[in-house]
Amino acid sequence: MTAQLAIEARTLRKTYVSTRGVFRRERVERVAVNGVDLKVEPGELFGLLGPNGAGKTTMVKIFTTLLLPSSGTAAVLGLDVVRDQWRLRRRIGFVFGGDRGLYWRLSGLDNLRYFADLYRIPPEVSRRRIPELLERLGLAGRERDRVELYSRGMKQRLHLARGLLNDPEVLFLDEPTIGLDPVGARDLRVIVRGLADAGKTIFLTTHYMFEADAICDRIAVIKGGEIVAEGTPDSIKTVVQDQGVVEFEVVDMPAERIAGLRGLPGVRSVAVADKELAQLVTVHCARPAEVMTQLGVMLDGLKLDRLTSREPTLEDAYVQLIGESS
Amino acid sequence: MSSLVRAARSAFLLSVRLRVVSPWSYLNWFVFPLLFAAVGLFVLSGPGSTSAHLVYGVLGGGLIGYWSVAYLDAGNGIQDERWNGTLEQIFATPTPLWVILLGKVFAGLLFGLLAFIPTAVLAYVGFHAVLPALDPWRFVISLWLLTLSFFCIALALAPLFAMWRTAFTMLNGFELGVYILCGFMFPVAVLAGWAQGVAGVLAPTWAVRALYASTLATGPHDYVLWWAMTFGLSVAYLVAAYFLYALVERKARLSGQLALA
């Protein structure tokens, strides 16, 4: 007998129906999630990566019973998200990124007490658990301040405290570090990794590659509502394992030379980003050493600031996956 | 105490706290009723007015304030939750939405009743107006039934506001319509025939009629009919609410309308 999965989706599909036009209304159907199959083991920290509008939040909302799937099935802890919503809600927690979702005019403590009652947690348990969570998330001492006086990082930690009130077996985090400063985001990642190490199953959505690379056990990349890759961060990187990345900064590189660069043998893609007075050119290629040799000719007469070759990262793999599937 | 009762109590207390800390809520239960009462009392205390006219000024402002707060709690309260991003949060808890809204509606009724205090003070101090032939027991029973009708309407409307992002746009229209149709500041008898027909299916109409009758010695006093109509229509709203919650629960999960966008 196999152990029960923490999260499972089978050919999951979700479409939204809306209308467009003013005088002549037209019915529009938009596919947000398109036939997704997914399995998350208990205790895993699973990351779902994808660009905006890829279907990440829709997936989280389906798993947390906020949305009904149009077809297919989804189960969390063996409970069907459509039929077993009331039993399931007691056993899961969720946190959406951003400032919203709290009562700003009330204190952090008021917010937590309210949600503890809505989660139907016995008072003797919530009286013990709320101070524990405040302490653990670094909010102790500020719990009686109004939420509007909290920094964005504190608000996000309060969100996390709310999501942990019912001591959930599975925690869904939808872009929890969005908008946080680097230190706040790093602190939150440490907390999230700690929760996973303590045995909680965590389903995290993000579009920060380094975040997924740093803390996730396994990840899936979603594009246009479909999973385009799934595995450990290292296995995802194998998508670009035969490649290298050459980066250089150059001043005023003409368009025809960039086009020439794209035509070099072994070059997969060339990305050009403006960086103050220079351009940062990133070349994904099969044989970096050869490309670097050829660059000497290509860049002749131009002011070259920096030239490096590096190993591909998860972000490179992600960019390739997203690019390939579009 | 059962966990559901505790959840409803918590929703009630949260709603009370939010009203206490929000300057805007004082407009609804204090300033606006006072303005309505002042205008009503000025108009109704003119030459040729009788004590019966003044009763409409005394109670009218309070009734308008009471209805506004109770009704706004169902509409604006839900819309505020949506804007705050908390509507999805409360919807996804193990507490059914109707239990949470029950607590919120009770808080609205409590603050709505407060609207009678400034209007009564204004009437007594500013216009020396009193309720001349007050029948306390019938007044209290009528006010209780009026409260029941407001409660049932608010509870039935709340899921609609949760369901449709744009439902709050009809808020003002319906709020004013009930002032007029239910005879808050003048008798329903002065309305056109069709309007009286519409007023007849609104439970507050009958409770308000009983409420005014309990302060006046003259006129018909058919309390049993008025109270029965209020109670019967309120129960009908409750039955409608029961089905609406089931419908909204499903529709909201299908369409994702609980989020702001």
Along the chain, the helix and strand elements of chain B come as HHHHHHHHHHH
Largest interface, chains and sizes: A-B, 33 and 32 residues
How would you state the average pLDDT of chain B, rounded? 85
Task: Measure the end-to-end span of chain B.
Answer: 37 Å
Number of strands of chain B: 0
How does this model look, in words?
The complex is a heterodimer of chains A (326) and B (261). With 326 residues, chain A is of the alpha/beta class. Chain A has two domains: 232 residues, P-loop containing nucleotide triphosphate hydrolases (Rossmann fold, 3-Layer(aba) Sandwich), CATH 3.40.50; 86 residues, ACT domain (Alpha-Beta Plaits, 2-Layer Sandwich), CATH 3.30.70. Chain A contains eleven helices and 14 strands. Chain A has a six-stranded mixed beta sheet, with helices on both faces. Chain A has a four-stranded antiparallel beta sheet with strand order 2-1-4-5. The model of chain A has no long low-confidence stretch (mean pLDDT 88). By secondary structure, chain B is an all-alpha fold. The longest helix of chain B has 34 residues. At the A-B interface, α3 of A face α1, α4 and α11 of B.
